[in-house]
Amino acid sequence: MSKEPEFGIPAEMRAMTEKSVARAKQAFEGFITAAQKAANLAEGQATTAHTAAKEASSMAIEFAERNMTSAFVLAQKLVQARDLEEMLKLQTDYVRSQIAALTEQARDIGKLASHLGTTGSKKP
Known about the structure:
The protein is 87% helix and 0% strand. The chain is built from 2 helices and no strands. The protein starts with 10 loop residues before the first helix and ends with a helix.
């Protein structure tokens, strides 16, 4: 005949403890899953922000190069101008072309901002 030890755990208490451990494990697994999702979301947003910064800086450099090239071309033409009238015409043409270029550049920046706004707000 087997006698239960004096310090034995009753079956009901053992079952309740096992359920508590199982619930705690399940809650912990839920926490880990949520933490992994949050980490992935943060990583995706950081990648998007990095990409956005890279695109914006590339665009700004390209615009600066174009604008400086236009200014140097104007300077060369002004140096070669025959008279004040030709200089004024060159300057007027330059201002018109720069207004058109700056308008296009502003449009491109707006498109980039809009694109980044929509891609940045999407959930992975």
